[in-house]
Design goal:
141 residues; mainly alpha; Arc Repressor Mutant, subunit A; 0% strand; globular
């Protein structure tokens, strides 16, 4: 979500919906409850972003990704902040692919875009995040 207040509101709403819909949950093995809750929450966030027309068109910059050596010294809270600063659609695709382990087909279906658009959006998100990491490293060296 674009800011902390929106994220807090979404978290509250998601838990209310989870409690309301828990009767529809079907256990299918270890991690199925977490996956179900995550899917429900992500769907709510995406719907809210769509409703508020916050998904924006994106540009691309040619920036090489930081090396593993450079990235390992970045504090977790800084990395989370850098990811959070990505534009909404890039952040959504990045989180769905890199954190939630969704396929491009799943992301495309959920966002109503093509698999190619999902792939390109992920590329743009990674490049933008790489630029932000490089800038942070330069400023904190």
């Amino acid at each position: 979500m674009p800011d902390t207040q929106d994220a807090e509101d979404l978290t509250h709403d998601a838990f209310m919906k989870i409690f309301d819909k828990i009767g529809k949950f079907r256990y299918s093995g270890k991690g199925s409850l977490k996956a179900w809750m995550s899917r429900l929450t992500v769907n709510m966030a995406l719907n809210r972003l769509r409703d508020e027309k916050k998904m924006e068109s994106l540009d691309i910059a040619d920036v090489p990704e930081p090396t593993e050596e450079e990235a390992k010294d970045i504090p977790l809270d800084v990395l989370v902040s850098l990811i959070s600063s990505l534009p909404p659609q890039r952040r959504a695709v990045f989180n769905m692919f890199c954190i939630d382990d969704w396929s491009h087909a799943e992301i495309a279906k959920e966002l109503g875009i093509s698999e190619n658009a999902s792939t390109i959006t992920l590329l743009k998100a990674r490049r933008e995040l790489a630029a932000k990491i490089k800038e942070w490293i330069k400023d904190n060296a």
